[in-house]
Amino acid sequence: xxxxxxxxxxxxxxxxxxxxxxxxxxxxxxxxxxxxxxxxxxxxxxxxxxxxxxxxxxxxxxxxxxxxxxxxxxxxxxxxxxxxxxxxxxxxxxxxxxxxxxxxxxxxxxxxxxxxxxxxxxxxxxxxxxxxxxxxxxxxxxxxxxxxxxxxxxxxxxxxxxxxxxxxxxxxxxxxxxxxxxxxxxxxxxxxxxxxxxxxxxxxxxxxxxxxxxxxxxxxxxxxxxxxxxxxxxxxxxxxxxxxxxxxxxxxxxxxxxxx
Length: 260
Prior knowledge:
By secondary structure, this protein is α/β, with parallel strands linked by helices. The chain has helices at about 40-50, 70-75, 95-100, 115-125, 140-155, 170-185, 200-205, 220-225, 230-235; strands spanning about 1-10, 15-25, 30-35, 55-60, 65, 80, 160, 190-195, 205-210, 215-220, 240-245, 250-255. GO terms for molecular function: ATP binding; ATP hydrolysis activity.
Protein backbone atom coordinates (compact mmCIF):
# COMPACT_ATOMS: atom_id res chain seq x y z
CA UNK A 1 0.00 0.00 0.00
CA UNK A 2 2.70 2.50 1.06
CA UNK A 3 6.48 2.38 0.87
CA UNK A 4 8.69 5.06 2.41
CA UNK A 5 12.28 4.67 1.25
CA UNK A 6 15.18 6.59 2.82
CA UNK A 7 13.42 9.95 2.91
CA UNK A 8 14.88 13.13 4.34
CA UNK A 9 13.22 16.53 4.65
CA UNK A 10 14.29 19.93 5.81
CA UNK A 11 14.36 23.66 5.20
CA UNK A 12 17.50 25.51 4.01
CA UNK A 13 17.48 27.70 7.13
CA UNK A 14 16.72 24.91 9.59
CA UNK A 15 18.59 21.84 8.38
CA UNK A 16 17.05 18.37 8.20
CA UNK A 17 13.89 17.77 10.23
CA UNK A 18 13.61 14.15 9.01
CA UNK A 19 16.62 11.96 8.28
CA UNK A 20 16.74 8.69 6.32
CA UNK A 21 13.30 7.29 7.24
CA UNK A 22 12.14 3.97 5.80
CA UNK A 23 9.07 1.82 6.50
CA UNK A 24 6.15 0.19 4.72
CA UNK A 25 2.43 -0.19 5.30
CA UNK A 26 0.42 -3.17 4.02
CA UNK A 27 -3.32 -3.54 3.62
CA UNK A 28 -5.01 -3.78 7.02
CA UNK A 29 -1.95 -2.51 8.93
CA UNK A 30 -2.49 -0.12 11.81
CA UNK A 31 0.77 1.76 12.32
CA UNK A 32 1.28 3.90 15.41
CA UNK A 33 3.85 6.72 15.39
CA UNK A 34 5.11 7.36 18.91
CA UNK A 35 7.46 10.14 19.89
CA UNK A 36 7.78 13.27 22.01
CA UNK A 37 6.78 16.74 20.83
CA UNK A 38 9.16 17.91 18.13
CA UNK A 39 10.13 14.39 17.06
CA UNK A 40 8.96 15.00 13.48
CA UNK A 41 5.68 13.07 13.47
CA UNK A 42 3.56 15.85 11.94
CA UNK A 43 6.29 16.71 9.44
CA UNK A 44 6.31 13.07 8.36
CA UNK A 45 2.54 13.14 7.86
CA UNK A 46 2.89 16.25 5.69
CA UNK A 47 5.39 14.39 3.52
CA UNK A 48 3.14 11.34 3.24
CA UNK A 49 0.26 13.59 2.14
CA UNK A 50 2.41 15.23 -0.53
CA UNK A 51 2.12 18.64 1.15
CA UNK A 52 5.87 18.77 1.79
CA UNK A 53 8.30 17.49 -0.86
CA UNK A 54 11.07 15.25 0.46
CA UNK A 55 14.67 16.25 -0.19
CA UNK A 56 15.94 12.72 -0.75
CA UNK A 57 14.38 9.26 -1.04
CA UNK A 58 10.87 8.42 -2.21
CA UNK A 59 7.32 7.82 -1.01
CA UNK A 60 5.30 5.38 -3.09
CA UNK A 61 1.60 4.50 -3.03
CA UNK A 62 0.84 1.21 -4.77
CA UNK A 63 4.30 1.37 -6.35
CA UNK A 64 3.97 4.92 -7.74
CA UNK A 65 5.85 7.96 -6.43
CA UNK A 66 3.39 10.41 -4.92
CA UNK A 67 5.00 13.28 -6.82
CA UNK A 68 3.92 11.67 -10.09
CA UNK A 69 0.29 11.11 -9.04
CA UNK A 70 -2.21 13.92 -9.79
CA UNK A 71 -3.74 15.37 -6.63
CA UNK A 72 -7.26 14.19 -7.48
CA UNK A 73 -6.01 10.64 -8.09
CA UNK A 74 -3.85 10.68 -4.95
CA UNK A 75 -6.93 11.62 -2.94
CA UNK A 76 -8.53 8.39 -4.12
CA UNK A 77 -5.73 6.43 -2.43
CA UNK A 78 -5.26 8.26 0.86
CA UNK A 79 -7.40 10.39 3.15
CA UNK A 80 -6.36 12.66 6.01
CA UNK A 81 -8.16 12.84 9.34
CA UNK A 82 -6.91 15.91 11.24
CA UNK A 83 -7.44 16.66 14.90
CA UNK A 84 -11.00 17.81 15.48
CA UNK A 85 -11.37 21.58 15.60
CA UNK A 86 -14.22 24.03 15.41
CA UNK A 87 -14.98 26.06 12.30
CA UNK A 88 -16.42 29.54 11.92
CA UNK A 89 -18.46 28.46 8.92
CA UNK A 90 -22.02 27.19 9.58
CA UNK A 91 -21.61 23.84 7.82
CA UNK A 92 -24.01 21.05 8.57
CA UNK A 93 -22.43 17.74 9.60
CA UNK A 94 -23.76 16.13 6.42
CA UNK A 95 -22.17 18.84 4.28
CA UNK A 96 -18.84 18.38 6.07
CA UNK A 97 -18.94 14.68 5.29
CA UNK A 98 -19.96 15.07 1.66
CA UNK A 99 -16.82 17.21 1.18
CA UNK A 100 -15.01 13.88 1.13
CA UNK A 101 -16.48 13.37 -2.34
CA UNK A 102 -14.56 16.39 -3.70
CA UNK A 103 -11.92 14.29 -5.55
CA UNK A 104 -14.72 12.47 -7.38
CA UNK A 105 -16.79 15.53 -8.34
CA UNK A 106 -15.95 17.67 -11.38
CA UNK A 107 -14.72 21.24 -10.93
CA UNK A 108 -18.00 22.74 -12.15
CA UNK A 109 -20.25 20.03 -10.73
CA UNK A 110 -22.12 19.82 -7.44
CA UNK A 111 -22.44 16.71 -5.25
CA UNK A 112 -25.02 14.32 -6.59
CA UNK A 113 -27.72 12.40 -4.74
CA UNK A 114 -25.34 9.43 -4.82
CA UNK A 115 -22.61 11.49 -3.14
CA UNK A 116 -25.02 12.49 -0.38
CA UNK A 117 -26.14 8.87 -0.03
CA UNK A 118 -22.50 7.84 0.50
CA UNK A 119 -22.09 10.55 3.14
CA UNK A 120 -25.25 9.43 4.93
CA UNK A 121 -24.03 5.82 4.83
CA UNK A 122 -20.72 6.85 6.42
CA UNK A 123 -22.53 8.72 9.19
CA UNK A 124 -24.69 5.67 9.82
CA UNK A 125 -21.66 3.38 9.92
CA UNK A 126 -20.13 5.53 12.65
CA UNK A 127 -23.38 5.81 14.59
CA UNK A 128 -23.90 9.55 14.16
CA UNK A 129 -26.59 9.68 11.46
CA UNK A 130 -28.77 11.65 13.89
CA UNK A 131 -26.29 14.54 13.68
CA UNK A 132 -26.63 15.02 9.91
CA UNK A 133 -28.50 18.34 10.14
CA UNK A 134 -26.61 19.67 13.15
CA UNK A 135 -24.01 22.42 12.77
CA UNK A 136 -20.47 21.04 12.90
CA UNK A 137 -19.47 23.92 15.19
CA UNK A 138 -22.15 23.02 17.73
CA UNK A 139 -21.43 19.32 18.30
CA UNK A 140 -18.98 17.85 20.82
CA UNK A 141 -15.28 17.16 20.22
CA UNK A 142 -15.84 13.42 19.96
CA UNK A 143 -18.69 13.93 17.49
CA UNK A 144 -16.54 16.27 15.40
CA UNK A 145 -13.78 13.65 15.29
CA UNK A 146 -16.26 11.00 14.15
CA UNK A 147 -17.53 13.44 11.50
CA UNK A 148 -14.01 13.88 10.14
CA UNK A 149 -13.54 10.12 10.01
CA UNK A 150 -16.86 9.82 8.17
CA UNK A 151 -15.61 12.41 5.67
CA UNK A 152 -12.49 10.31 5.08
CA UNK A 153 -14.61 7.17 4.55
CA UNK A 154 -16.75 9.03 2.03
CA UNK A 155 -13.55 9.80 0.12
CA UNK A 156 -13.27 6.03 -0.48
CA UNK A 157 -9.50 5.90 0.03
CA UNK A 158 -7.81 2.73 1.25
CA UNK A 159 -5.18 4.46 3.41
CA UNK A 160 -6.22 6.70 6.31
CA UNK A 161 -3.69 9.06 7.89
CA UNK A 162 -4.80 10.23 11.33
CA UNK A 163 -3.11 12.96 13.35
CA UNK A 164 -3.69 12.24 17.06
CA UNK A 165 -7.29 11.08 16.54
CA UNK A 166 -8.10 11.09 20.28
CA UNK A 167 -6.45 14.41 21.14
CA UNK A 168 -8.41 16.56 23.64
CA UNK A 169 -11.21 13.99 23.94
CA UNK A 170 -12.60 12.68 27.22
CA UNK A 171 -11.95 9.07 28.15
CA UNK A 172 -15.25 7.73 26.83
CA UNK A 173 -14.87 9.46 23.47
CA UNK A 174 -11.26 8.27 23.20
CA UNK A 175 -12.44 4.66 23.54
CA UNK A 176 -15.24 5.29 21.05
CA UNK A 177 -12.75 6.56 18.43
CA UNK A 178 -10.37 3.66 19.11
CA UNK A 179 -13.20 1.16 18.54
CA UNK A 180 -13.97 2.81 15.20
CA UNK A 181 -10.30 2.62 14.14
CA UNK A 182 -10.16 -1.05 15.14
CA UNK A 183 -13.28 -1.81 13.13
CA UNK A 184 -11.96 0.02 10.05
CA UNK A 185 -8.72 -1.94 10.16
CA UNK A 186 -10.66 -5.20 10.27
CA UNK A 187 -12.56 -4.02 7.18
CA UNK A 188 -9.24 -3.76 5.31
CA UNK A 189 -8.31 -0.11 5.68
CA UNK A 190 -4.64 0.70 6.22
CA UNK A 191 -4.16 3.27 8.97
CA UNK A 192 -1.26 5.43 10.09
CA UNK A 193 -1.89 7.30 13.31
CA UNK A 194 0.19 9.50 15.56
CA UNK A 195 -0.38 9.28 19.29
CA UNK A 196 1.00 10.46 22.60
CA UNK A 197 -0.50 7.40 24.32
CA UNK A 198 1.66 4.24 24.10
CA UNK A 199 -1.34 2.20 25.29
CA UNK A 200 -2.95 2.83 21.89
CA UNK A 201 -0.24 0.72 20.33
CA UNK A 202 -1.17 -2.26 22.52
CA UNK A 203 -4.90 -1.79 21.92
CA UNK A 204 -4.93 -1.26 18.15
CA UNK A 205 -1.70 -1.55 16.27
CA UNK A 206 0.30 -4.31 14.68
CA UNK A 207 3.27 -2.06 13.91
CA UNK A 208 4.94 0.73 15.89
CA UNK A 209 7.40 3.38 14.73
CA UNK A 210 9.41 5.14 17.43
CA UNK A 211 10.53 8.63 16.37
CA UNK A 212 13.05 10.90 18.05
CA UNK A 213 14.88 13.95 16.71
CA UNK A 214 13.61 13.38 13.18
CA UNK A 215 14.73 9.76 13.00
CA UNK A 216 13.03 6.39 13.34
CA UNK A 217 14.88 4.74 16.20
CA UNK A 218 12.88 1.49 16.30
CA UNK A 219 10.29 -0.38 14.22
CA UNK A 220 8.43 -3.53 15.15
CA UNK A 221 5.38 -5.00 16.81
CA UNK A 222 4.07 -3.42 20.03
CA UNK A 223 5.37 -6.40 21.99
CA UNK A 224 8.86 -5.89 20.57
CA UNK A 225 9.07 -2.13 20.65
CA UNK A 226 6.88 -0.73 23.42
CA UNK A 227 9.12 -1.65 26.36
CA UNK A 228 10.14 -0.10 29.67
CA UNK A 229 13.59 0.88 28.44
CA UNK A 230 12.57 2.27 25.03
CA UNK A 231 9.71 4.39 26.40
CA UNK A 232 11.74 5.62 29.37
CA UNK A 233 14.46 6.79 27.00
CA UNK A 234 11.97 8.22 24.48
CA UNK A 235 10.07 10.38 26.96
CA UNK A 236 12.96 10.89 29.44
CA UNK A 237 10.79 9.68 32.30
CA UNK A 238 10.49 6.36 34.08
CA UNK A 239 7.88 4.08 32.51
CA UNK A 240 6.79 0.57 33.46
CA UNK A 241 4.94 -1.91 31.25
CA UNK A 242 2.62 -4.13 33.30
CA UNK A 243 0.22 -6.91 32.38
CA UNK A 244 -3.39 -7.00 33.56
CA UNK A 245 -6.16 -9.55 33.17
CA UNK A 246 -8.92 -8.29 30.86
CA UNK A 247 -11.44 -10.39 32.78
CA UNK A 248 -12.31 -12.45 29.72
CA UNK A 249 -9.61 -14.45 28.03
CA UNK A 250 -6.23 -12.72 27.80
CA UNK A 251 -3.58 -10.57 29.40
CA UNK A 252 -3.30 -6.92 28.36
CA UNK A 253 -0.19 -4.77 28.49
CA UNK A 254 -0.48 -1.28 29.93
CA UNK A 255 2.03 1.57 30.05
CA UNK A 256 2.30 3.24 33.47
CA UNK A 257 4.44 6.33 34.21
CA UNK A 258 6.34 6.25 37.49
CA UNK A 259 6.27 9.52 39.43
CA UNK A 260 8.85 8.52 42.01
